[in-house]
Design brief:
BirA Bifunctional Protein, domain 2, Pro-tRNA_synth_II (chains A, B), aminoacyl-trna synthetase (chains A, B), Rossmann fold, 479 residues, disordered N terminus, Proline--tRNA ligase (chains A, B), 27% strand, 23 strands, eleven-stranded mixed beta sheet, cytoplasm (chains A, B), homodimer
Chain lengths: 479, 479
């Protein structure tokens, strides 16, 4: 009976059958999002929003601990302001939503619904910055941005997404560069430690970097299907924007200078990364740090004397050290199991009449389905230990998947064969020419993911053109 | 010398001279906001944003404690969706910003930048709600909204403001009504307990209620100048919107029903309320609960042996129980005093060489300037006690101002005289007719603030028309 119930709850496509459909099934069935009636716009439902809030809380604390302050910039940006930096506007113009009417009046100038806010921060700084004493200014904002994408998928690419955008200005280029690295490392730490997602840190090629940036650094995660997901980026702008927007300060030498600038962002895309890194055919699997419910307590034979009461008592105790939910609804236990598996709750606690007699309960891990009997007196150590073990295993499995799907190639024939054999990272040397990067895309369907900080020497030449190699690149198929 | 420095920092208009200018001076000089280059749009600077975040944190915890869940709805709303409920669209159409272009394409249908989200929530519920078992759905979102206001003032009325909008649906009208009251009480508690702002709770007249609502409840605060500020509202919609948007559920009787709906919101306007309730000619005065810095530590003669070290040590200790800032900059103490007074820091701790000898320090309250010498061994009790005393006094002073400026009238002559003599609340009986409400506005310049829950019987008739009175109304001049 539990089995039938299970099917009833789930009915999602398997990963094997259709990974893309499996993904969108989870987004909907785990009640993370709903498709709104505005084309390409999603609704974050309570469970999806709760996951995002846990990521936010974690990130926000880290940002503040390193001296960043939150601000709020206008949601609308005048076209003339957007146009001051040529590369940025060229990069974003095709995907901007334009406000042209205010009430019943046609606006004199179109206003863009913000696609990103470098321009607004620069405009603000051009008025408020005076002296080197006020530097650095390290700002962040949590907001949504709008980009008019043609094809959309929940969390991965939608016309609106929620994110943080950090924007900082510094007295020296070195300080700005250090900030860029610090924030990239912050992102990598959150991914690896809290989301249990291993990432490759590296620099984007010029073709793949942010419009207007001097350098873009990235963390790249690999999904279960071998595709790459750019999961966070950190940009160094030099003084390009501060010159374009006339941001100046009086330096220690009493002369006017332009500050050096960075920006960096992660978004609700991270929720997509969690789904596709850890999920299975029964649904989502959440790393404990961002699980709105870390432990679900399910009473078995709840009508038997003492069971409901004990389940409630345990939930109350557990709430002191973990996010816990008592499922005392009148659904069958099997139905509850499936429901909470779909929602990726890391740990299930079952307690029935026999357990009561033995002063024990059953803990079941979401990832392994491993069941352990635990004395009720030891729960307070057993639960955190199980959560930590799950986190560690999620990370190790994701890392193993990445290692299994990372291959090195020194010739184009090898590249072609590997790309045909499976999806993953292909490492090659590269001469640095755009032509070879384009050829890799056109002939093999691979884009450069990054030039990893951890370089290897695979050969002396670019496999594409045979010219001397400058760097090693990770290539892949990206979301 | 301290005096000169003081003037240098401040240079703000006095309340006496020009209250409106005093207000905007504080907004800018305390670095709460900056005027953006988008007309009518402000920037929340770090200090202003930090105050808003403390209000948010407080509110959000209260919402969650009563079973509300956060969600995120699209920022853009199709015109056709906005138009389904006639009163709402009529109320908001004149002040909507319209997106008409996506990239380089003209949109088939205009999209409104959300002015409020009742329509989106209803649209969502029309798809996801099925059974009474899923009710109530108690949602909230933190976001910004855009309303194309003609005249704007920071926090009080701007084209974009940040707020929370709660939206709930319930099985019965009684439950929805109870929710409306609960949330109004929640707002009143935050205002009175945390912001030290006394409020009058009541119901809006039909003229003043929210477009489309069956009933609007409000908390009204009185500013130092006697003007009223609507500080939070809670609306009961009955099943009007759920009928318009076809939101239905299968009830306990197995029949289709429309749920009963509420919405409620507070905004960054509360920051304006804090400024105008507590501030003085030296700047802002922040209630401790929402002060980003509760205690500023200022070393006196910091170059003398041991002073800097002791100041740092104290700040470190205080950080365990209060939000503290050590001002170890090389500005003169007088300059620091003025700066932190402008920013409304509730408590200043001074420590100099003589204090060191006596194992004491000086605590100075922002509101009274009262100085007390406190033994360093007693700081941990003295600081929280001083903060609480300040909070209580802020509240009492605001209450005294309101009581001083609240007058009863039974004839139109009395109303006219009182309105001429000063700004405040004028209480009168009212027949309930729109004509009398309009007359009060046109002839005396007063709008109805609310029909307070705490009613008094001042006379039997409406002073305006002489017909039998139905209720007592607070009239005033509103921001």
């Amino acid at each position: 009976m539990a089995k039938d119930n299970k099917k009833l709850v789930q009915a999602i496509t398997s990963q094997e059958e259709n990974f893309a459909q499996w993904y969108t099934d989870i987004c909907v069935k785990a009640e993370l999002v709903e498709y709104s009636s505005v084309k390409g716009f999603i609704i974050l439902r309570p469970y999806g929003q709760a996951i995002w809030e846990l990521i936010q809380k974690d990130m926000d604390a880290r940002f503040k601990a390193t001296g960043h302050e939150n601000v709020a910039m206008p949601v609308l940006i005048p076209e003339s302001l957007l146009q001051k930096e040529g590369e940025l506007v060229n990069g974003f113009a095709p995907e901007v939503a334009w406000v042209t009417m205010g009430g019943s009046d046609k606006l004199e100038e179109r206003l863009a619904v913000r696609p990103t806010s470098e321009t607004m921060f620069c405009d603000h700084w051009s008025r408020v910055l005076h002296s080197y004493r006020e530097l650095p200014m390290k700002y962040n904002q949590w907001c949504s941005v709008v980009r008019w994408e043609k094809t959309t998928r929940p969390f991965l690419r939608s016309r609106e997404f929620w994110w943080q955008e950090g924007h900082t200005i510094h007295e020296t280029a070195a300080e700005a560069e250090a900030e860029t690295q610090q924030q990239l490392n912050c992102y990598a730490d959150v991914c690896e430690q809290d989301l249990a997602i291993p990432v490759v840190k590296g620099r984007k090629t010029d073709k793949e970097k942010f419009a207007g940036a001097e350098a873009t650094y990235t963390i790249e995660a690999m999904m279960k299907d071998g595709k790459a997901l750019q999961s966070g980026t950190s940009h160094y702008f030099g003084d390009k924007f501060s010159k374009a927007y006339d941001v100046t300060f009086t330096g220690r030498d009493n002369q006017l200078h332009h500050p050096f600038q960075t920006s960096w962002g992660v978004s609700t895309r991270l929720v997509g990364a969690i789904i596709m890194t850890h999920g299975d055919d029964d649904g989502l699997i959440l790393p404990p740090a961002v699980a709105p419910i870390q432990v679900v307590v399910v009473p078995i034979a709840a009508h038997k004397p003492g069971v409901s009461e004990k389940a409630a008592e345990l939930a109350e105790k557990i709430s002191k050290y973990a996010r816990v939910k008592l499922d005392d609804s009148d659904n069958a236990p099997g139905w509850k199991f499936s429901q909470w598996e779909m929602k990726g709750v890391p740990l299930r606690l079952e307690i029935g009449p026999k357990d009561l007699e033995k002063n024990q309960c059953v803990l079941v891990r979401r990832d392994t389905r491993e069941k352990v009997f635990v004395s009720l007196d030891e729960l307070e150590t057993a639960i955190p230990a199980q959560l930590e073990a799950l986190r560690k295993d999620l990370y190790e499995r994701a890392l193993a998947n990445r290692e299994k799907r990372t291959w090195a190639a020194t010739t184009m024939d090898e590249v072609r064969e590997l790309a045909k054999a499976g999806t993953g990272y292909i490492k090659t040397m590269w001469c640095g020419d755009l032509a070879c990067e384009m050829k890799m895309k056109e002939e093999v369907g691979l884009s450069s993911r990054c030039m990893p900080f951890e370089q290897e020497h695979l050969s002396d030449v670019c496999p594409c053109c045979g010219k001397p190699a400058k760097t090693m690149v990770y290539w892949g198929v990206a979301y």
